[in-house]
Amino acid sequence: MKSPGNGKMTLSYEDCVAMREILSLIGDKWSVMVIVNLSEGAVRFSDLKRAIEGISQRVLTHTLRGLERDGLVKRTVHPTKPPSVNYVLTALGRTLIDPVSALARWAHQNRPEIERARESFERATP
Fold first, then answer.
1. Helix (H, G, I), strand (E, B), or coil: what is residue 85?
2. Is the pLDDT reported for residue 119 higher than 60?
3. Roughly how many angstroms between the first and final C-alpha of the chain, as a whole number?
4. Lowest-confidence segment of 20-24, 57-61, 76-80, 94-98 by average pLDDT
5. Under CATH, which number does the domain 13-124 receive?
6. Is the preceding omega at residue 82 within 30 degrees of 0, hence cis?
7. How do the domains of the chain map onto residue ranges?
8. CA 44 to the chain's CA centroid
9. How open is the CA angle 43-89-101, to the nearest 5 degrees?
10. Which residues contact residue 56 at a Cβ distance below 8 angstroms, ignoring those fewer than 6 apart?
11. Rounded to whole angstroms, how far apart are CA atoms 111 and 108?
């Protein structure tokens, strides 16, 4: 990513590919919700499932495994009866908190305008 001095951002093809890969990794329906819920610290699987409305156990497991595979989440099994499993953001995962928060603020601020644009588009499209 380069800024040629005139305040404009220029992106190389490689920058765009990298962004696409990362956005597909964290931009699915559930990953952001998991990241947000882990932003305050370690959370048990059952508490995550309760906190994320509408997520199934299977989808939560799949999402957590993907985030763990990519180094964003760490899974810890505690040898209790029954075993307790906690998830926490890694140092790399914690670097997502600010960008995700900024995107959430942008979405909240701009959602009404986007909804108006969609309605206008739908009215104008036969």
1. strand
2. yes
3. 40
4. 20-24
5. 1.10.10.10
6. yes
7. 13-124
8. 18
9. 100
10. none
11. 6
